[in-house]
């Protein structure tokens, strides 16, 4: 799926739910999609799981991970639900990877997890969806004017406003060409 289409789907969902300010209310979005979110204890390498069985939809997130990491994982699993669920039962397992690998172009093998029904392309699409959902283009761009991103405290402050990691914010700012790869 093209990045513009993913951005559009994330925007449509936020507008349908009415969560347009940072930080984005993921619980409202999940509820709108009929999805229950639970915290679970997993091995550290597992960030979260989306289980679809009939009409039941469950996102289970690793409760030992940082709250910002949990938010990205929830948004990622919602991405699978919105972008990749057509019919039938499915299991999506999200392993804990560095954010730059998760959003960027990681080796395809990095996404292969026994039991998961996803492809590397689907994982990258879900990552893009998570970024677009948590850090909406229009909202983020409206908040970047006048900021000096050579000062890392600016990225830290912006990340805190959106309740995401500094790394996720930096990647999103690069994705939107607010900053270049030298920062």
TrEMBL record:
Domain IrrE N-terminal-like as annotated: residue spans: 56-173
InterPro entries listed in its UniProt record: IrrE_HExxH, Rad_response_metalloprotease
Identification of the protein by name: IrrE N-terminal-like domain-containing protein
